[in-house]
Write a structure and sequence with these properties.
By secondary structure, the chain is of the alpha/beta class. It is built from 12 helices and 12 strands.
Length: 327
């Protein structure tokens, strides 16, 4: 099958070329949007990532070009208009889990870096500054960690935090009993906002979870709370977080995702004038750490993404049952 592959980076080519056998992949660096959809002409499948925009208009353009399958090489599908895809009879498949460990471990990396300030210590020591002033952290042992969403990633994250000796609280629509049995206490969401020293978001973005962290919920949190978001940017109202940082209510903020990330993330903009004043304000805080959606970025996850995406496409081509169908 001929596949139009959007938002390609060198690492995508490396991993997909390693595992592709029967399909012909045409790699485009451009993201998929209304301007680039025509590049898929003649391809039965398009392969896309988290920030490609598949709204009803783009899907209609793809349908006209002969596209029958959208292969998401990611787990989240909030960037696809699923009802439009259904109406157009375009199938959507995804990679439901590539490495929950990769993302959970990255969330922990954000916590440890913000807490123990290793990023600052690294620079200081390289410049011959061996002072410990303003590097004070806190023991994670005994702290209360609130986990919102205990699916595949949230469960691994709970395990790691239990290993640190934290008191782990969780909220999910459905409690995961094996996680509860390990000592995680399921509580109502608002109790978690009030009691946690560290809050980590591991739920999907949807209409219920959009701006879950906003001025109202930040106002309930402990003074100096640490918030970690490795899930989706719009789970948090960024303007409200900035106010929370200015007032000191938020003591630490670790983000691997950002509401307006599609204009920034995954690109080298170091020679550009960044036009997004909100992210520049966030970057001005000494207690904010932002990474560019790299939670998934491990050898194991990239291998799994390539293998499962190609197997999803194989199943479609063979007319077999689609194991990882979204619609
Ligand atoms: P999952 O589907 O296994 O788990 C999500 C959990 O959230 C489920 O247990 C679900 O019941 C729960 N949930 C749904 N609505 C909720 C609500 N309103 N409140 C609380 N919990 C709710 O998903 P997985 O694999 O654990 O991924 C979690 C999120 O991580 C994804 O949705 C995605 O946005 C993000 N992600 C980020 C990556 C990165 O590189 N930073 C890579 C992969 C995923």
């Amino acid at each position: 099958m001929k596949i139009a592959f959007f938002s390609t980076k060198a690492y995508d080519r490396q991993f997909f070329n390693r595992y592709v056998s029967t399909h012909e992949i045409i790699y485009f660096e451009a993201p998929l949007n209304q301007q680039t959809a025509n590049l898929a002409a003649g391809c039965a499948c398009v392969c896309v990532f988290v920030n490609d925009k598949l709204d009803a208009f783009v899907l209609a353009l793809l349908k006209e070009s002969g596209v029958q399958l959208i292969a998401l090489r990611c787990a989240g599908f909030n960037n696809v208009d699923l009802s439009a895809a259904r109406d157009l009879n375009i199938k959507v498949v995804r990679v439901p889990a590539y490495s929950p460990h990769a993302v959970a471990e990255h969330a922990v990396a954000l916590i440890l870096t913000l807490n123990r300030k290793t990023h600052k210590a690294y620079n200081r020591v390289r410049e011959g500054n061996f002072s410990l002033e303003r590097l004070t952290g806190f023991d994670l042992y005994g702290k209360t960690v609130g986990v919102i969403g205990t699916g595949k990633i949230g469960q691994v994250f709970c395990d790691i935090m239990l290993g640190f000796g934290c008191n782990v609280l969780a909220f999910d629509l459905v409690a995961h009993q094996p996680t509860a049995a390990k000592g995680v206490s399921y509580l109502p969401l608002l109790d978690i906002f009030q009691e946690a020293d560290i809050i980590s978001l591991h739920c999907p973005l949807n209409e219920q979870t959009r701006h879950l962290v906003d001025a109202n919920t930040i106002g309930m949190m402990k003074e100096g709370v640490m918030i970690i978001n490795t899930s989706r940017g719009a789970l948090m109202n960024t303007a409200a977080a900035i106010e929370g940082l200015k007032s000191g209510r938020i003591g630490y903020l670790g983000l691997d995702v950002y509401e307006q990330e599609e204009k920034l993330f995954f690109n080298d903009l170091s020679e550009n004038i960044i036009q997004d004043d909100v992210i520049m304000r966030l970057l001005s805080f000494p207690n904010v750490l932002i990474t560019s959606h790299q939670g998934f970025f491990t050898e194991e996850a990239l291998t799994q993404i390539a293998r499962v995406t190609l197997s999803n496409i194989d199943e479609f081509e063979a007319g077999a049952r689609l194991t990882n169908i979204v619609v």
